[in-house]
Amino acid sequence: EKKYLLTTFVPGIKGKPARVDMLRYPDRMGRDSSSTVVDNDSSNDENKAVNIPSGQGLTSKSLFNAEEVNVKWSPRADAALLLTQTAVDNTGQSYYGSTHLFLLLEKDVKNPTVGSAMVVPLPKEATKDGSGTVPIVSADWIPNPSITGVVPFGVISGRMPALASLHHGITGEPTFLFGRAHRNTMDVSPHGRFIVCGGYGNLAGGMDFWDKNKGKMIPRRIVLKEEEGKAAEEDNTKYVTIKEAADLSITSSSPVVGHQWSPDSRTYLVSTTSPRMNVDNGVQIHRYDGSVVEESALPWDNAKYRPDKLLSAEYVPAPFPSEEEEKKEFHYYPDRPQSPPPRRFTELKGDAAVAALNKLRGAQAAQAKGGAKTAVASAYVPPAARKAGGGGAYVPPGARRGAGGAGAGRGGGSTLAERMRQEREGSAATVAAVKVTKRNGPVGAASVMGPVGASAADDGGKSKSALRREKQRLAKEKAEKEAAEEEKRKQEEEAARVSANKADPEKRAKKIRKVLKQIDDIKSKAASGIELNDDQKKKLTTEEELRKELASLNL
Hints:
Elements: E1 4-10, E2 18-25, E3 33-39, E4 48-54, E5 59-63, E6 68-73, E7 79-85, E8 99-105, E9 116-119, E10 136-141, E11 153-157, E12 162-167, E13 174-181, E14 185-188, E15 194-198, E16 206-211, E17 216-217, E18 220-223, E19 238-242, H1 245-248, E20 250-251, E21 258-261, E22 267-272, E23 282-287, H2 323-328, E24 346-347, H3 351-377, H4 383-388, H5 416-432, E25 437-438, E26 449-450, H6 464-503, H7 505-527, H8 534-540, H9 543-552
Parallel strand pairs: 19-24
Antiparallel strand pairs: 1-2, 2-5, 3-4, 6-7, 7-8, 8-9, 10-11, 11-12, 12-13, 14-15, 15-16, 16-17, 16-20, 18-19, 21-22, 22-23, 25-26
Helix pairs in contact: 6-7, 7-9
């Protein structure tokens, strides 16, 4: 008798929490329900319908912060990851809402007759300080059900740079940490051996290739090209092995939209497709160690897809195995480890390897620099710059005309910005009642305006020291003026207060008595040994003045 697991989700309403149940068809579909199944093994010629009573569900979980739920089943269909999400984070720590990760099991470890539900424990390293809420970026199972032991799952958690980790498929405890990086996707090969941690979408497209069985990043072998003038001997081909994590991390040359492992787990596809990206469409193939397959070796031409003609790129699935093949092995292709280096090649080690690696880094840096120049040349050019003949680069309005031609410098402009600047300068000259002249010079040089016949440094013949002393004198006069105005304001306020007291002495007396009462309370606190603050000490100093003012009111 075949049994099937399923989950149900009921959103929370009117203060009640949301609820997720794990059920099993046909015998654990709910407490007060029953299932009708067809008995195909009946001795009668006609199939007989059998009514099977259903017990309570395997397990359930109440969710207080869940508006959306994404369920991901394990490849053995005996457990499920539950990724919940809310649109608003009540703690205020995230603009994108809150996320939580749960693990549902068909069989509890202590009691196999019932299921269990638990919160997936995340590594403390997922947060920089080891505390606080941890957002879940992604969570996926290892897709191979035929691996030995418990099927693990991978999680990327924490704020960028996020932490990628592997977790036990039953206890949920973290078993391996990949480290922190700007990654939001974990792609596992169909056989579960190789893993890519990638930063796609809004991230830069970085990729790290890991071997799960060894717990290390996959080293990359670079075959060195023979120098010019030397005969290329097949038996003397040299290569160098890259093992440093900083060198093994690679970045895609264009934004990544699609990504997928091949069915044989030997290559990894990344693509830039439309309508998500309408420029640089194309497909790039990486080997399992991250090395790129040359475009000349690909059976297609990416140039035909640019800029926005590629809609999708995916591997053709492996043929579905027959029943006999499925009993022997789950996958059509065998699970192969990393390939060893060719025996006829010679690996460089020691100083020779370091020199070769430095040479490779220099060549990559030069290539990246040249690619950046090309990108700038093919970038968007504003219409005003196109007419200026700036060679495709943006040219400021003041430099779009030759220095020797008509309208040189900033004068005689035809663009809106130039005309607005001329209007402002013309208005300033009219107010000053002087004729303004403008100096022309190279691009980036300052333009100085002044009366006709005056030089740019015409300051009355004063030295720098004299100018500095004059500036200090003006600043001092300004400060003294502001201080006098402040003193005058205080005197006016005092006079207004005195006049108000004369107009209504009873009101003023009532206010003074209130303050004196507060002063008495402060004195009692000080007598009892309570330390006073600065405001209370300041209020005590006003007691004598207030009592004199109260006596002068003659009330």
